[in-house]
Amino acid sequence: MDREKAASDRFACTERERCIFETGIKLATIYHQYVGTPFNRKSVSSLEEAISRSIEVQPYVVSAKVSIDRSVIPDDVDEYSYLSLTGDMIDAVVKVSMGSTTVTAEMRYDDELRYPLMFVSKIE
Amino acid sequence: MDREKAASDRFACTERERCIFETGIKLATIYHQYVGTPFNRKSVSSLEEAISRSIEVQPYVVSAKVSIDRSVIPDDVDEYSYLSLTGDMIDAVVKVSMGSTTVTAEMRYDDELRYPLMFVSKIE
Amino acid sequence: MDREKAASDRFACTERERCIFETGIKLATIYHQYVGTPFNRKSVSSLEEAISRSIEVQPYVVSAKVSIDRSVIPDDVDEYSYLSLTGDMIDAVVKVSMGSTTVTAEMRYDDELRYPLMFVSKIE
Amino acid sequence: MDREKAASDRFACTERERCIFETGIKLATIYHQYVGTPFNRKSVSSLEEAISRSIEVQPYVVSAKVSIDRSVIPDDVDEYSYLSLTGDMIDAVVKVSMGSTTVTAEMRYDDELRYPLMFVSKIE
């Protein structure tokens, strides 16, 4: 069975529109799966890597780059010197490609909005 | 400050396309925030209600209807008679509206795909 | 099959100690399942209720009271007037009972520690 | 300020009992933070590593070993060839040490219980 064809038949929109839809899914996956995860200065790279890879296994994802703000991580002075991940600390760029369309969407704390905004930054 | 205008300026796409993007965010929020939640026959309505309402507080959401499959819930016979929510048990319909566009997107276990598919079902 | 007896046989500790262990599980469930959930002034009660009930369905739980700090919720002025739940906003009291032991454990933001501490507050 | 001393003062139990409580917290963190995470055959090691490390940054943890059942991962044949993590796939062993006590607790799918049981397996 061709699952990609079958899935495609469920959509009441163009391929370009579906590609945009998929980027929204991916950014919210990053936020709602990982917010709350404990990390510190030593484990932050392993967390970034795991987030990126868990997004890249999903359908039609070309790449997912995730950076966590290191400036807020406390020094390792006692047992409580670690953080829980919040949306404000995440900077993510996800590219999804279907047919001839590639959509780039980003999540980034927006200083003006005071909000970790998810937005479509490029369609090619 | 007009945060809605400021947010809008970050998008490199049409309002219709942004509306589609927002529905993707909402469906993935349902999945990745709530999968793993313990529930039983008595608490399932309260969980559905909380999921719906947490989606409806988000930007531009008109409605979010969530049903959890009751057929898989075990009878209450011992301390272990409850379930953890999985994606396969969720049926969700989310409507997002911006300007003159309303997009309906759904998440539903697809028997043919054997996969809880998220898809755009209507654009008006 | 007696699943409660079978589960009990897996534990290399006393019933009192197991009861303490179970309270740790319940508090971390609250934190890691729900941190990141969107809510506003209107939906906060429904979220508290769903959290409490999802804990109460779990083995040996007598009660789970959850309060979310309303003082940090912004007024409803635009589409972005909502919050994502963080550990600092949660105040929880969980009671677990096995045999003749009841253990009360709590999670609460501790001003001195600047940390949402989970602790055992009473054993009876 | 001595946060370790201050935290300790909040507990109405012995150090040994607190140590048991902390292992319950850690196992539930694994379950409720990560259940729902997408992974495939290529990314599974990176996910195991990230889970282990996020537990090891938490207070008083000596080690956290996490294995995800590879036997259920589908072959990579199409865009939908990946899984979402469930509790049944996780095998975890966490050691927490305070003063002279070390507690080992485990989470493992129990065939007899048909349930991913968390239990205390050793106190030394």
Task: Describe the fold and architecture.
Four copies of one chain form a homotetramer. Chain A has 124 residues and is of the alpha+beta class. The first copy, chain A, has three helices and six strands; from the N terminus they run H-H-E-H-E-E-E-E-E. In chain A, strands 2-4-5-6 form a four-stranded antiparallel sheet. A two-stranded antiparallel ribbon of chain A has the order 1-3. In chain A, strand 5 and strand 6 (115-123) form a beta hairpin. The longest helix of chain A has 20 residues, at 15-34. The model of chain A has no long low-confidence stretch (mean pLDDT 95). Chains in contact: A-B, A-C, A-D, B-C, B-D, C-D. Chain A binds chain B through residues 1, 3, 6-7, 10-13, 16-18, 20-29, 31-33, 105, 110, 112-113, 115, 117-123, and chain B through 1, 3, 6-7, 10-13, 16-18, 20-29, 31-33, 105, 110, 112-113, 115, 117-123.
Low-pLDDT runs of chain A:
none
Count of β-strands of chain A? 6
Across the major sheet of chain A, the strand order is 2-4-5-6
Largest sheet of chain A: 4 strands, antiparallel
The rounded distance between the terminal residues' Cα atoms of chain A is 30 Å
The helix content of chain A, as a percent range, equals 25-40%
- How large, in whole angstroms, is the Cα Rg of chain A? 17 Å
Order of helices and strands of chain A: HHEHEEEEE
Most extensive interface, residues per chain? A-B, 36 and 36 residues
Report the structural category of chain A.
Answer: alpha+beta
Strand content of chain A: 25-35%
Average pLDDT figure of chain A? 95
Separate helix tally of chain A: 3
Q: Say what oligomer this is.
A: homotetramer
Name the shape of chain A in a single word: elongated
